[in-house]
Amino acid sequence: MPRKPMKPCKHPGCALLTSGRFCEVHAKQHAATVLSSTEKGYDGRWRKAKKKFLESHPLCVRCMKVGELTKANVVDHIIPHRGDMNLFWDESNWQPLCTRCHNRKTRVEDMQILYKY
Question: What is the dihedral of CA 106, 90, 87, 99, to 10 degrees?
């Protein structure tokens, strides 16, 4: 059976080929930066707030802009909170999205470079 093709390491500037996301050199470095969903703030309190928000905002705002009515099942942070708990819990920074719209938005955001000065 053919093996999965090797891909370049996802660490910026590293061209080593790997079968995973990161090469052996960078895998340990990135494992320490990955937090669980609970550590990011997505706990029982979040699940309750999300449920309440989606009950009062049941439709995807992006689909509505193009005239479609799609049930929202994701509460998206309009401005990515990046660990800022004040921004995380700010309901004015929340929007209801369907999974398709949320995945598109997240993919675009993940392609952007985040500069930290």
Answer: -10
Instruction: Write out the two tokens for 57.
Output: 């905002």
Taking only the tens place, the pLDDT of each residue in 93-113 is 999 999 999 999 988 877 665
> 77 has which bridge partners?
94
What residue spans define the domains of the chain?
1-34, 44-111
Task: Give the strand pairing for 17-18 and 7-8.
Answer: antiparallel
Sign of CA dihedral 68, 69, 75, 78: positive
Could you tell me if residue 54 is left (phi over 0), alpha (psi between -120 and 50 degrees) or otherwise beta?
Answer: alpha
Consecutive H or E run containing 44:
helix 44-56
Placement of tokens 């719209």 in the chain: 101
What tens digit of pLDDT does each residue of 14-54 get? 888 988 888 888 887 776 666 666 666 788 999 999 999 99
- pTM value? 0.65
